[in-house]
Amino acid sequence: MRDDDLIRRRIRDALLTDARPLPAGRDRAIVRAATARPRPARARRLRRWSLSLAAVAVAACLVAGIVWTRGLGESGHRHHHGPAPAATPTPSPTPSPQAATDFAVGTSDQAMTWYDDQGHEVGTWANLKGASQPQVSPDGRLVLGIHLGTLPWYLSDASGRILAQESSPSFASPTWAESSSAVCTISDGVVRAWSVQASPGRIVPMASMTVPSTPDEVVVSCDPTGTTVVAAYQIGGPGSLYRVDLSTGRLTGTIAIPAGANMPVSANGRYASLSTGAPTPSSTIIDVAGDERLATVPGDVVGLSADGTLAVYSRGDGCAVERWQTGQTVWTSPGSCGALAATLYQPDLDGIVFQGGPSDVWLVTGQGGAVNISGSAVW
Amino acid sequence: MTNVGAGQLETDTSVDEALILAAKAGDAQAFERIMVPLQHPAYRLAQTLLGDPTAAEDAVQEACCKAWQHFHQFRYGSSARNWFLTIVANQCRSMTRTRWWSVERRAEPNRDQAGHEPLLETAMVLREELRQLPFDQRLILHLHFCEDLPQEEIAAILGIARGTVKSRVHRAIRRLRRNLGPEVLS
Questions:
Q1: Higher pLDDT, A108 or A5
Q2: Cys bridge to A228: A112, A248, A269, A351, which one at CB 3.0-4.6 A?
């Protein structure tokens, strides 16, 4: 019992030693900033539900018709969870995917440096102060930021110059596409893609689609053109992962997320990894579109490359990068294996950047080349 | 040592039905009365998960916006605190998944502890090891040891079985002991 008390006290002290109290008055200010944002009207929610229910009814009729005409034996077995999404695809200026050869690394002096695919320094950010939730583009050249609790979001370059602003409440927690020319958002169940341009500075809505809404909704991958988007719900608890094709307004995959699971998804939205944990940690690579188990990796996968073919995972003797389709280990390190930091999006070079130890960032390519950027810390 | 609110559990609201119904209907003041007391445990949790006070404030702010947007989904009879801490934890998780949500800023060591070197060293080593734990293990240790939540409530927040909470806490402690040596946690 005394041992338990000691453990409790030491862990509590260690976790809370540097914790600061919320400044006086901030509790109320936070809540007021939240209520200052418009809330979706009840009528709109009902309309969305009606659309979902109508879509379910139509889908049910179609399925019934197919089953009736083809016979039960030929019916598909793919299962979807939750109400069918209501699609509202809109004509869009599709960004052309570009190779993102650079990536950015945050450093401890509150600056951010970006590197080329050889690990050579290209440039430095120093204007992130004052930005809340700064989201630097994968190529390190643009940042989306917001001032605490207020709209609009702004797009700026490394010099701090504001290029564009977006004040729509639906522009929430943007996730960059690997091309750095689009972002995806989800707000109140509406998945949206936005084209982002630096010159002239523009943030333009492209297409949207409605899926079930929960407070935990988050975009986990946004493909280079902002067409295929994967949104997840109740990450860490039982929930669902939805893959949507915004160009057609179709739901192209649904996967149930087990309780407590963390599922890294490749940037192209094609593959996900599910750790299976005890007694021996291992991960299953899943085809998101087909909800099909493709391979098993002997460790906890922390991230997948942009095309999903490389997996970074922790195993008993350190950290490894593996081409899971062939089982080929392309790189290993005795050190620890931290979170994914970036992926290189290029047709002829698959690379993956991740945190190693506290001051180690590794860039590992599919060809086995590895560059250590020491003294830097990321994300 | 500044143990902010350690062990001080804000009471989870004897929030009455009328207040909840009003907040569900869009009454900002009712929502404020429910949510203001929950900001402090939420901020503590976010600091543990993100390791940075500024980012933690961002996370709580965004979580509060989501709570407001989705308050119609809150069920009367369930715990507002647990519901909100779930949103905060998921917000922190999504922020750590998004690259470059922030640059890393490590807190300065607390100078008040000068003169207690062995203790300080132990605490620093333990703190560093806690930072290296996976997100979910940090989350569960915080809820268990810092907020003193019963296993049933932790299970409700994480959406897992009570037995799983127990086994995960043990697994996290076993990992700390393995990496730090038995003397640090015994």
A1: A5
A2: A269
Predicted complex ipTM: 0.81
Interval B125-166: pLDDT, tens: 788 788 777 788 889 999 999 988 998 889 888 877 888 888
Task: Give tens-digit pLDDT for B74-131.
Answer: 887 788 998 899 889 888 877 776 543 333 333 334 444 444 455 566 777 788 788 7
Maximum pairwise Cα distance, chain A: 71
Confidence check: pLDDT of A161 > 60: yes
CB-defined contacts A:B, below 8 A:
250
Judged by CB atoms closer than 8 Å, whether chains meet at B100 and A13 is answered as no
Integer Cα distance of A357 and A355 in angstroms = 6
Of residues A171 and A376, more confidently modeled: A171
Crossing angle of the two packed helices B28-35 and B17-24, in degrees rounded to 10: 120
Mean pLDDT value of segment A273-286 = 80
Backbone phi and psi for residue A314, each to the nearest 5 degrees, phi listed first: -90, 135
| Distance in Å from the first CA to the final CA of chain A | 39
Cβ neighbors of A91 (< 8 A, separation 6 or more) are none
Q: Which of A6, A35, A214 to mutate to test the interface with B (most CBs of B within 10 A)?
A: A35
Contact yes or no for B99 and A235 at CB 8 A: no
Q: Which residues of B touch A259 (CB under 8 A)?
A: 158-161, 164
ω into A281 cis (within 30 of 0): no
Give Cβ neighbours of residue A328 (< 8 Å, ≥ 6 apart): A322
Q: What is the pLDDT of residues A293-347, one digit of tens each?
A: 999 998 888 889 888 999 998 887 788 999 999 999 999 887 767 777 667 666 5
Rounded Cα distance between A177 and A184, Å, is: 7
Q: Name every residue whose Cβ is closer than 8 Å to that of residue A267 and which is 6 or more positions away in sequence.
A: A177, A178, A221, A222, A223, A224, A304, A305, A306, A307, A308, A343, A345
* B contact residues 6-45, partner A, Cβ 8 Å cutoff: 6-7, 26, 28, 31-32, 35-37, 39-40, 43-44
